[in-house]
From TrEMBL:
It comes from the Eukaryota. PROSITE patterns: ZF_RING_2. InterPro entries: RING_finger_E3_ligase (IPR051834), Znf_RING (IPR001841), Znf_RING/FYVE/PHD (IPR013083). Gene3D superfamilies: Zinc/RING finger domain, C3HC4 (zinc finger). GO terms for molecular function: ubiquitin protein ligase activity; zinc ion binding. This is RING-type domain-containing protein. One of its GO terms (biological process) is ubiquitin-dependent protein catabolic process. It holds the Pfam family zf-RING_2. The keyword Transmembrane helix applies.
Length: 269
C-alpha cells in the first residue's frame, strides 16, 4: 500500500519539487549546524566542570546534559536526511515531476524523519524547562563552576535557529497555495509505490519482443511500439506491456494495470 495515506503539513511545499528540496536543505543544514554548536559548547563545559557544576545547580546541569545529548543524537539523523536530499536533487532532472513529489512526500513520512521530529519536540519541551530554570535560578559560590552562562549560550543558539527557521518558512510561504492541492494529494495516495514501479521488468522493442508478447500498441498513448523503445512489462496475468514513460506516469497516479486493473503491488509481493 502507498505510504502517503495521510496528509502532512509539508506536503503542499512539494508541489514545486525544487523549492521543496531547497526548503528542506535550509532547515536541515541550519538544524545540523545548531546541533554541532550546542553539543560542542555543552560537552566542552561538562568535561571541564562536571563535578563542580552539580554542586552549583544539579537540576540545570542535568538539563544541560540531557539537552546536549538530544542535540548530539540527532546529528547522524540530519546527515542521513541531507544525503537523501542530495540523492533526490540528483534525480530531479531525470524523474517525472510526480515521482520527485512522491519521493519527497515519502521522505517526510519515513521513520528517520519521524524520529527527527520527535527529537525536535523533545528539544522544545526541554527548552521551556531550561528557560524556567534560568529565570528562577540562584547564584552559587564563585569558586564553583556556574552552568548558567553555558546554558544561556546553548538556549540562545537554539532560539536563533528557531527564528531563522521561522523566517525561512514565512519567506517560502509567499508562494500562493494551489487550490487543487487536496485533489492532487488524493491521486498521489492512490498511486503505486515508487519502488514497485522501478522494479518492473524493462525490455527493448525488438524481434524477440514481437514473438513473446501479443500487443504491439501502448494502450496509454495508443502509439505502436517502435524499434528501440523501452517497454515495461506488468506482472499481471496477461503480462501487459506499455512504454516505460507512459506506464510510469500512469502508475504514480493509479496502482492498477490500464487494461486489466490488476495491482502491481500485490503481484510484486
Amino acid at each position: 500500500m502507498p505510504t502517503t495515506t495521510n496528509s502532512h503539513p509539508l506536503d503542499w511545499k512539494f508541489l514545486n519539487p525544487s523549492k521543496g528540496l531547497k526548503y528542506l536543505y535550509y532547515q536541515f543544514t541550519i538544524s545540523f549546524i545548531t546541533s554541532i554548536c550546542i553539543s560542542t559548547i555543552s560537552f566542552k563545559y561538562l568535561y571541564s566542570n562536571f563535578g563542580n557544576s552539580f554542586l552549583c545547580d544539579k537540576y540545570l546541569t542535568y538539563w544541560l546534559v540531557l539537552f546536549s545529548l538530544v542535540k548530539f543524537c540527532d546529528i547522524p539523523l540530519k546527515v542521513k536526511l541531507l544525503l537523501k536530499l542530495v540523492y533526490l536533487s540528483s534525480r530531479i532532472k531525470v524523474d517525472d515531476t510526480r515521482f520527485t513529489i512522491k519521493r519527497l512526500m515519502n521522505l517526510v513520512r519515513s521513520s528517520i524523519f519521524k524520529t527527527f521530529e520527535l527529537l525536535n519536540i523533545s528539544s522544545y519541551l526541554l527548552l521551556i524547562y531550561g528557560l524556567v530554570r534560568i529565570v528562577s535560578g540562584n547564584t552559587c559560590d564563585e569558586n564553583l563552576a556556574n552552568p548558567y552562562s553555558t546554558s544561556v549560550k546553548v538556549m540562545m543558539i537554539f532560539i536563533i535557529r528557531l527564528i531563522i527557521g521561522i523566517i525561512v518558512l514565512k519567506f517560502d510561504d509567499n508562494e500562493p497555495v494551489i487550490r487543487g492541492f487536496p485533489e492532487f494529494l488524493y491521486f498521489l495516495q492512490d498511486g503505486a509505490e515508487i519502488e514497485d514501479i522501478e522494479n518492473l521488468q524493462e525490455i527493448s522493442m525488438n524481434d524477440d519482443f514481437k514473438n513473446q508478447y501479443k500487443n504491439d500498441v501502448c494502450s496509454v498513448c495508443t502509439f505502436e511500439f517502435q524499434e528501440g523503445d523501452v517497454i515495461k512489462v506488468l506482472p499481471c496475468y496477461e503480462s501487459h506491456t506499455f512504454h516505460k514513460d507512459c506506464i510510469d506516469r500512469w502508475l504514480i497516479q493509479k496502482d492498477s494495470c490500464p487494461l486489466c486493473g490488476s495491482s502491481i503491488a500485490k503481484k510484486n509481493k
